[in-house]
Specification:
Blueprint (H helix, E strand, L loop, with lengths): L23 H13 L22 E4 L5 E4 L9 E3 L11 E3 L16 E4 L5 E4 L6 E4 L8 E4 L10 E8 L8 E7 L5 E15 L5 E13 L4 E11 L11 E5 L4 E6 L5 E15 L1
Antiparallel strand pairs: 1-2, 3-4, 5-6, 7-8, 9-16, 10-15, 11-12, 11-16, 12-13, 14-15
Amino acid sequence: MSNVIIPPMAYQTPMVDKNNLITPTWSKWLLQLYLRAGGADAPSASSGLTNPMLNLGDMIYGTTSGIPTNLVGNAAAVKKFLNQTGSGSAGGIPVWSAIAQGDLPNPMTTGGDMIYGGASGVPTRLANGTVGQIFTSGGTTVAPSWATNTSGAYLGSGVISETTFTIANNQSSPANVTGLLFNPVTIRSAEIDVQYYRNTTGAGATEMSARSKFLATYKTVAASWDLAPLGSGGDFDSGTGEPAGITLSITAAGQVQYISTNFSGTAASSVMHFRASTMGV
């Protein structure tokens, strides 16, 4: 075996005190250093490993026939991830890249969709709901869904933020105010703030604007709600004496309803804004 001269600073010895020994791992490293130095008894080049890395963050990957090749480290000041796309039968060259939207499992297909955890937490699509529906959950093992207030999905104790509702003209029988519904199982009372605006144009044009407050309270034994006016201001209908010609009532199920007077002229705007704060049972 030919002699190999190793400069003193060519490597760092693992020994830190007298009588230390070089472990087999380091012995192998010194052998590789010898082979790379061109030792006379060196086996073929494929038996050794020549380090292709040059800089901090570099990595080694195998190209054709497993030749050790340098993958330059990510020098960008942003996070990138190791990405590799194979051919179906062989691996591909790895690269550093940012995560693209298509790299993540996304079951959503339409604007307004949501993702929830399905069986074993698998990302699952929940299609967007319709106007006025609320998000409901049937428990930890039941998929969430969108439900309409008027079909039995109740608003729980808390706050109903300001909501807009379209008032029908000349509504003679009580009709639901969508979204203004209180669950008597969880709610004992609610303070409701309502604003009305109605106007028509042309012959017989009419305009009214008013605001009212109500207190809704529930009796468990009687299983009934009471809706008491706390005060109103603005325009009052001369026939009914109601603000803007609107009369509110509440059902035993906690659904607020309304009737309206008849405005002559061509309909232009007829809206109700409401909000409420509730207290639990």
